[in-house]
Design goal:
Elements lengths: L2 E5 L2 E4 L4 E8 L6 E8 L6 E6 L7 E2 L7 E6 L4 E6 L8 E9 L11 E2 L3 E6 L1
Parallel strand pairs: 2-11
Antiparallel strand pairs: 1-3, 3-8, 4-5, 4-9, 5-6, 7-8, 9-10, 9-11
């Protein structure tokens, strides 16, 4: 079992930045692809970014390319999502997820999920 706990959400003005952290316990993350997803009110959950367990090139949704950066620190068993130039449409609950031996592709099915943290971007 992998337990994932996100932190770093909050309220920010448009154009601002936030950094999400996702700390894992129970297993070491070096065998897991790690992803970030989000769900806005009234919408389905959508893929945001992911990184392969091998540390290869990450994947990003078109809507966040150039603004968001996913990174991982296996020694700290933590994954990060740096969000810059935030827009009101980025408002959502953000979830991290772990995918055993996952390559980070957007279509992957994830095995473990965090509880989510709220990000609200005001205009």
């Amino acid at each position: 079992q992998v337990q994932l706990v996100e932190s770093g959400g909050g309220l920010v003005q448009a154009g601002g930045s936030l950094r999400h952290s996702c700390a894992a316990s129970g297993r070491m993350l070096y065998n897991y692809g790690m992803g970030w997803f989000r769900q806005a009110p009234g919408k389905e959950r959508e893929f945001v970014a992911a990184t392969s367990y091998t540390g290869g090139l990450p994947y990003y949704a078109d809507s966040v390319k150039g603004r968001f950066t996913i990174s991982r620190d296996n020694a700290k068993n933590t994954v990060y999502l740096q969000m810059n130039n935030l827009k009101p449409e980025d408002t959502a609950v953000y979830f991290c997820a772990a995918d055993f031996l996952g390559g980070g592709q957007p279509f992957r099915q994830y095995d473990y999920w965090g509880q989510g943290t709220q990000v609200t971007v005001s205009s």
